[in-house]
Every structure is written in structure tokens, then in C-alpha cells.
Amino acid sequence: MRNLLLSMAMAAVALCAALPAAAQTVLDGAYIKEHTKTKRVVPYTHIREADVMWARRVWRTIDLREKVNHPLYYPTEPINDRKSLFDVIRQGLLVDGSITAYDPGPLLTDDEFKKPLLAPELKDLFTRMDTQYTESLTTGDMEMVVQPINLESRDIKMYKIKEDWIFDKQRSTMDIRIIGIAPMKEVRGEDGEVRGYAPIFWLYYPECRYVFANWDAFNRENDAERRSYEDIFWKRQFSSYITKWSNVYDRQLNDYKTGLDALLEGEEIKQALFEFEHDLWNF
User: What angle do CA 161, 151, 188 make, to 5 degrees?
Assistant: First the structure.
């Protein structure tokens, strides 16, 4: 009887040990998705300075609250096959170390990739310590409680991108090259009201392409044709509005326009960029 109980116990232990291994072999789907994970970045076409007939630098803001931009925002919590764009950036910065963040400067206006952020500085950006005073349940005295507050994906509602519009006379094409991208978070006043949005750090986009190309973004029409984040930016499948373009004063649109007037000014710039390329082929 004792030998029987011992053998049953050993069999139960062996079964429990085998369960995690069996669970790891379960395929959550009908096939293995490996296209995006092994995808290679399409290299940029080389542009000679002598072939640049016309160029203009443009700054845009992508508002993730717009429905067309939701694939960049959701899911706010990582799931089995997808992460939000900010979670992809977080992993590239803190886990993989495959991309570099650059300091936006004391006024949060520096977008020239001058100062790379070190690991401790990045940690402070993603996790801040909040101090609160609460009443002790035992003594009734006020005690100081320090708790970490993490920067979550749901906190990032906008992205700013810097791009160059270039007409290459050798190929007779208008190239749009994204140079930098910056996640933006809310800036609140002392009264708690939202005062605007400011960049947390800047990322050099040609470096980010190798990370964005290996992460799926949701496709509303077909789960079998999910495009990568790199595809979304490459194919311009996002909505944005212009906040600045290169000018002699180096000022943004909201420095001389406000509210609806600034949006209309941005639309006029969009139209001017479109008409420039269109008029090149208008005989």
C-alpha cells in the first residue's frame, strides 16, 4: 500500500512538472506569425545634395485621440501579439537598448539630437517618486508615504514628428523623410488644469525604423494583413496637423496664430506643399 501511494505521488509530481512545458507548446492561433518579426527595413534611396532641387522642413503633431490614429495608441496594456507604439519605444530604450533618446532641453524645444540621455535619466523620466502624507491606522499621526508612479502608455496622447520634404530632380520624385519623433505628455498647471503638451524626449527616426519594422499594428479590416509601425509611417497612414515649417523667424504657428486660425494656417501649408509638387507636372 505504501509503495502504491508513493508511486501515485511521484506520478502526480511528474505530471505537474510537465504541465508548464506543455503549456509552452500551445499555439494561440492557427499559424505561426513570423512575417513581421523577421521583416527587414527597406533602405532609403540615396540622395545627393546636387540633386536636391527644393527642400523644406516641416513639424507635425499626431493626435492619438483621432480615430485614424488609434492603431498607434492601443492597446494601452501589452497583449500577446501587440503593443502600443509607446510600449515598443519603452522596450527599445529600457530593455533592448536598440534606440537612443535625446534631451529636449530645459525649455523642451531642442529637437536637434544634441544630448543623449543616460540610463539614470531615462529611468527618472519613466518612473517618478510621489510623496503623500496619510494618516496612520495605528498611531493616528500623519506619515509620509513615497510611491513610484510609472509613465504609462495611456498617458501619451500625442507625438511630434520632424520631417524633410525633398524634391529629387534626378528621380523626379518628392521624398518625405521623417527625421525625428517625440512622444508628448500633458503639462498641467498648479491648479491641475491641462496647459498643453510637451515632448518627453526625441528619437532619431532612421534608428527607430529597425525597431518599428518588427512590431504589428492593428488592421481594422484584416488580421492577416497587419502592418508594422514602420509601414504606417512609411505609407503615411496617420492623421496630423502642421505646427511649424522652416521660416526666417524660426517660430511656430501658434506664435502668431491661435486656436482655429493656427489649424487653418497649417492646412494652407499642406495645400502649398501639395500644389508645389502638382505644379511641377502641370504643363
Answer: 75
